[in-house]
Amino acid sequence: MRVYAETSAVLAALFGESEGETVAGILDNAEATLTSMLTLAEVERAFCRLPEVAGPAAAKLAARRPDFLAASADWIVMPVSSEILFRCGHRFPVEPVRTLDAVHLGTIERVQQVVPDVVVVSTDRRVRTNAARLGLTVLPG
Question: What dotted CATH number matches 2-139?
Answer without folding.
Answer: 3.40.50.1010
